[in-house]
C-alpha cells in the first residue's frame, strides 16, 4: 500500500486498485485528500471513516466495490461522495459487507454534479439489506441490478422522480 500512497502524493490522475486476497487491504487516508485524482476505482480495499472532511476536487469517476465493513460503511461512502464536487459517474458494486449486519444499512447519495449512477448489490442474505436515498438533480442515467429497485428512493429539486431500471445481465 505504500506505493499507492506515493503515487497519490505525487499527483496521479487515474487510480485503479483491486486487492486480490481473502482479507481486505486497507487504503491509507491520503486517498481522501488528493487534489489531482480524476478517476478512482477501488475493489476489495477497506476504507476507514476519515476523521476529517474528504476533498477530491477533480474527481469525476468513482467505482467502489467491497470497500466497507461494519455499520459505518454507508457513512464512509457518503463522506467520500460529499468530498467530490465534480463527480459525474458513480458505480457502487456490493460496497458493503452486509453478510454480518443485523441492522438495515442506509446510504445517502447526494451530489449536485452526478450524471450517472450504477448500483450493483449482492443478493440479500437473511434479513439484512440496505436502502439508498438519491439526491442528484442532474442525474440522467441509473442502473440498478439484482432486483433492488424497491430499496431506492430518488429525489430531485423539482420533485420529479428519476426513473430506475433493471440492468441487462
UniProtKB/TrEMBL annotation:
This protein's name: Predicted protein
Annotated Pfam families: LRR_At5g56370
InterPro entries reported in the protein's UniProt record: FBL13/AtMIF1-like, LRR_FXL15/At3g58940/PEG3-like
Chain ranges of the F-box/LRR-repeat protein 15/At3g58940/PEG3-like LRR domain: 7-147
Amino acid at each position: 500500500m505504500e506505493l499507492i500512497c506515493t503515487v497519490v502524493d505525487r499527483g496521479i490522475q487515474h487510480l485503479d486498485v483491486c486487492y486480490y486476497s481473502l482479507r481486505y487491504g486497507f487504503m491509507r487516508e491520503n486517498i481522501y485528500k488528493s487534489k489531482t485524482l480524476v478517476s478512482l476505482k477501488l475493489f476489495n480495499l477497506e476504507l476507514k471513516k476519515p476523521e476529517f472532511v474528504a476533498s477530491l476536487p477533480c474527481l469525476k469517476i468513482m467505482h467502489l466495490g467491497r470497500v466497507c465493513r461494519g455499520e459505518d460503511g454507508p457513512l464512509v461512502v457518503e463522506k467520500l461522495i460529499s468530498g467530490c464536487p465534480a463527480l459525474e459517474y458513480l458505480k457502487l458494486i456490493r460496497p458493503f459487507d452486509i453478510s454480518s449486519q443485523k441492522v438495515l444499512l442506509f446510504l445517502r447519495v447526494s451530489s449536485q454534479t452526478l450524471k450517472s449512477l450504477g448500483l450493483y448489490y449482492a443478493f440479500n442474505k437473511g434479513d439484512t439489506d440496505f436502502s439508498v436515498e438519491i439526491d442528484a438533480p442532474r442525474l440522467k442515467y441509473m442502473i440498478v441490478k439484482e432486483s433492488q429497485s424497491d430499496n431506492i428512493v430518488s429525489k430531485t429539486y423539482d420533485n420529479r422522480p428519476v426513473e430506475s431500471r433493471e440492468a441487462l445481465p
